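Note to self: the last two entries modelled the partners one at a time, which told us nothing about the interface. This time every component goes in together.
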Amino acid sequence: MLLYVVSAVYVAYLSVKGGLGTATWNALFWIILLFAAFNALSRSFQREDQGRQLYLYTLVDPRSVVLARSLYNALTMVLLSLLSLVFYTLFLGGEVLAEADLPQFLLAVVLGGIGFAAALTLISAIAARAGNGLGLMAILGFPIVLPMLLAVLRASKLALDGVAWSVTGTYFLGLVLLDVITVTLAWLLFPYLWRD
Amino acid sequence: MKHWWWKFLAIALLLVASIAGLRVPLSPALVHVSPSRISPGEVNIEVTGYNTRFSEGMRAYLENEGQYVCPVRVEVIDATHARITAVVPAGLRASMTDLVVQGLKYPGAFFTEGLGDGIESGPCGPSTNKLDMSGLAFTFPNRSILYESIRNLHFHVPMWFTMIALMGISVWRSIQVLGNNSLDRDRQARSAVHVGLLFCALGLTTGAVWARATWGAFWTNDVKLNGAAVTALIYLAYLVLRGSIPDAHKRARLAAIYNIFAFVLLVMFLFVVPRLNAIDSLHPGNGGNSGFNDLDLDNRLRVIFYPAVAGWILLGIWLYDLRHRSLRINEHLDR
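The predicted structure of the combined assembly is written out below.
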């Protein structure tokens, strides 16, 4: 996964000569992260065969499985987001970050990563159950992640512009709310999903 | 008769709403005034009205911060065109002067030059006789930018209300599917999505036409418009998901799960997040823009709007019922 991000960043570096504006810098970063999320999370339920899943579900409550999976995916995404941020600034320059409110931007990155993970975990489970891998995952996941992407883009853009917490606070509140609701929905719906 | 009285109600409501929505005239208003700048001295003003009845001897004056300038001559060309000649005195207080003709105000008509401490107000202020406005008939508000396109309110908005109602039905059926694995409930959920998508397409079309008339473009990058696009994508994805699963029971369950998940998030995205952010949006009712609360001061639009909403929702439910029955017959025939 890391390799994917690094090569994506490198491609961006090669294709973008010269400095990037704040808005473009921000947008490119989130696009790379979005595709990384799709790639990483689509395998979340597909890697395991039926037998192992059945074994898991006999051991524990399926709800625990989906919670654990969401948690694991969220951690992966946070790690991946932060690492890709490091590579991204390394290759494409971090002048943009000079005026930014860094804690705010990091919070946006972390919340965005968790949001992607939370939404895409259940989607990847559905896609895996439908027996149709990446294609379906993209079709099902994209419209759900798109509004989240827009919100997080705006929040991180504001953070990059160094806007006060009082302004960006509502965005972060909204993102947290979205994350919580998504995980709750996954937790509620998953028990109906796993059995055949 | 007992069970389908509401279909007659739907037809009646839709007829009333559509005919009235298209036929009720706009209230008279001044739509164009030239020149846009006046300075002390004699000035010839061309006024264009809409649905007005300009007549000889009509009352016209310029208003500048409560002070009035009376015209020297008012020439009526026809019911909607007039030429007003006035001598603008030096020393008006405010930089914007309004024009009032027949009690119809065109606010901020002229950028005013030669300002001062005020003038001696002319004897031609607003009429105390309210009947002067010839506004007795039932009319729709005439608002700049919107003009005749205000009628679209009775078509564009009910489409989305109907779509939300149908998607709500669909989600309710999907929840029932998870409870009892009923294929019939699944068919109902699917039918509701089919009809809902039809109304989504109609909402997008009417919205695009309206946006072209008022904003100048068929599509803009706007929170509300993005929400509409995402809605369409989600439900198209729902149909794609259904198409990719061969087993009927499995299809019913997976589609139901996706439907519930997507709908809850959709409601969040459409109604909660835009309000939380309170961000830039051109669309009425968002980002500090007025909805029809101050567009329609005296409830003239509501009289038609609420029947229109009720009529379209009933029609949507009717279509959904037909779709469900035709799907059931089709499946029965296939078997």
